[in-house]
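Give me the 3D structure for N-lysine methyltransferase KMT5A-A-like.
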Amino acid sequence: MKMASTLDFSRGKRAVKIGLDKCGGPPVKSRRVSPDVDAEFWCKAGLDKDGFEKRYIDDTIGFGVFATQRFQKGAFLLEYVGSRITPQEAEQLSTGKRKKNKFYMFHFTWNGKHVIDATHTLDRLCRFVNDEKKWKCCYEAKSF
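Predicted structure for N-lysine methyltransferase KMT5A-A-like (144 residues):
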C-alpha cells in the first residue's frame, strides 16, 4: 500500500499535517477553534485556507476570489500578505501600473492609515479580494 506524501493533500491539509508532525501528537477530534487561534495558525503557516478559488470576472475588474464553501460569521478567512506602505507611496506606485491594471493594494486603517501592496505576492489568494466599501467587505486587522 502506497503511503500518502504531503503533496497529495490540499494546501490546508498539508499545513495541518505539518503542524501535527511538529507537535508529535495524534489527530484529535476536531472542535470549533476560535477565529483568533485559526488566524494565527494560518498566518504563521503561510498558507491559504481551503474553500476559496480565483475566478476571472472581466477585462475591467480582472480576477476575484470567491468562497466555494460556507463559513461562519466572524470566522477567519484569508490573510492579505504584502508590503505595508503609506497612502502616498501607494499613489506613486499605482500611477504607472493603473493603465496596465497590474497592481493589488488593500487600503486599511490601523494605527493610522496604511496600504498593503500585494503586487509581488504571487502565491496568495487574498490579493484578489475586493476591498470596495460599497460591497460591504469587512476585515479585521490582526498583528501576531
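The chain has a mean pLDDT of 74. Let me know if you want a second pass.
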